[in-house]
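Re: that chain you flagged

S.,

Sorry for the slow reply, it's been a week of failed gels. I finally had a moment to sit down with the sequence you sent. For the record, here it is as I used it:
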Amino acid sequence: MERQFPYPLVLDGDYSPHLNRRLWLVKWLLVIPHVIVLFFLWIAFLGLSVAAFFTILVTGRCPRAIFDFNVGVLRWTWRVGYYSYSALGTDQYPPFTLADDPNYPARLSIERPQSLSRGLVLVKWRLLALPHYLIIGVFTGAAFAGYDQVRNHNAWAYGSGLIRLLVCIAALVLLFAGRYPRGVFDLVVGLNRWVFRVSAYAALMTDQYPPLRLDMGGHETHTADAPITIGPDPLPAG
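Prediction finished late last night. Pasting the structure tokens below so you have them in one place:
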């Protein structure tokens, strides 16, 4: 029997098997306006996350305005990534909005906690999330980039990562076969879901530790006998 997965962050993507064969070749150009906007939004995201850190440390709560804004940045990022080279899951151009768009095929939402642990805020973003950082570094290419920086004496390097590799395979299949392989799609969305769960946890938006498992598929459902989440229990507030 299936039920909704209880993790506070829900990330969905509608599967579209038949996409334009060649549009992905120019999506890097089409998303430039979004990339420019997201550059400034992420600067604000980081600044507000620092403000949230001190607010949670003192009051045990994240201000509603900061939480909603940061959720909007993650949501916007997921839509652009889903359209472009984090998934290539749709040809529908992303909207320029922080708000939820129920009609867009990529959606992200986070349940706002009533309170957050003032103890966890000191350690979860850098210590407790470290195992996840190592894992998603392989997904995103950050791990390979870091290795190349050390090997090349801190020279700039960029790693493609598992997600980009799978999206490249899907793009080639789409180009020649005219369809997006469902198995690749489910895996790509699952990897992105893991990345965004860790991002929300590290950004102090939840105390619930991200599960150390891959939940694949466009929509978040799981069976009652799914593996138990691994990770530390949240400390009591205050």
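What I noticed first: Residues 32-59 form the longest helix (28 residues).

Talk soon,
D.
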